[in-house]
Amino acid sequence: MKNETRASSTLDAGGILRARARALARPRERTPVAEASLELLEFRLAQECYALETRYVREVYPLKDLTPLPCTPPFVLGIVNVRGRITPVIDIKKFFDLPDKGLTDLHRVILVRGNGLELGLLADAIAGVRSIPVDSLQPSLPTLTGIRGTYLKGVTAERLVVLDLARILADPKIMVHEEVEN
Fold it and tell me: Could you tell me if 137 and 155 are in contact, meaning their C-beta atoms sit under 8 angstroms apart?
């Protein structure tokens, strides 16, 4: 009787193993791929909403102790000392030829890093961080011409202008190579 029980349990185990093998051999059902998204830092410039990818943002710093630099283009606002690091600050409103209303203590410096550069971008105000689906970005608006259109990654349906910071940081116009003659 023991041998019969062993034989039947071996047959059952073989059937179970074959069923498991068939289940494992079936092709997997495709699970929907998670939608690619961009995490953005949203900020205001001259009453318009702009955004940068957060992967470039090191931190947001209040504008204080700004030291102007002589002999630099108008878009170079000056330098700030952030915990012992001297960082140039670029006013992208002037770089994009947007209207300027002067500096206030509400302005923020977005410290960014990329393409071997580290600098600050002046923002009128910080709106926050949010994620958007990559496929929700539309091409540039026809009203954004000239220099602003060159540096755009896209525009959202809510008219949030997403800047291509890698392209901005790679532009040779952002580098200052002027020397003062004595």
Answer: yes
Spatial distance between the Cα atoms of 44 and 118, rounded to a whole number of angstroms: 21
Please write the tens of the pLDDT for every residue from 57-99: 999 999 888 899 888 888 899 999 988 999 999 988 888 777 7
Q: Which of 154, 171, 180, 158 is nearest to 95 (CA)?
A: 171
CATH class (in words) of the domain with range 37-174: mainly beta
pTM score > 0.85 for this model?
no
Query: How far is the C-alpha of 29 from the C-alpha of 106, rounded, in Å?
Result: 53
What are the tokens at 20?
A: 């498991």
Structure token pair of residue 135: 């496929």
Whole-number pLDDT of residue 17:
83
Ranges of residues in the chain with a pLDDT under 50 are 1, 5, 7, 31, 33
Tokens of 84: 């012992």
Contact 31/143 with Cβ under 8 angstroms?
no
Q: Which residue has the tokens 């580098």?
A: 175
Do 124 and 45 form a contact (C-beta atoms < 8 A)?
yes
Reported for 112-115, long-range contacts at CB under 8 A and 24+ positions apart, including other chains, are: 112/52, 112/56, 112/57, 112/58, 112/165, 112/169, 113/56, 113/58, 114/56, 114/165, 114/166, 114/169, 115/166, 115/169, 115/170
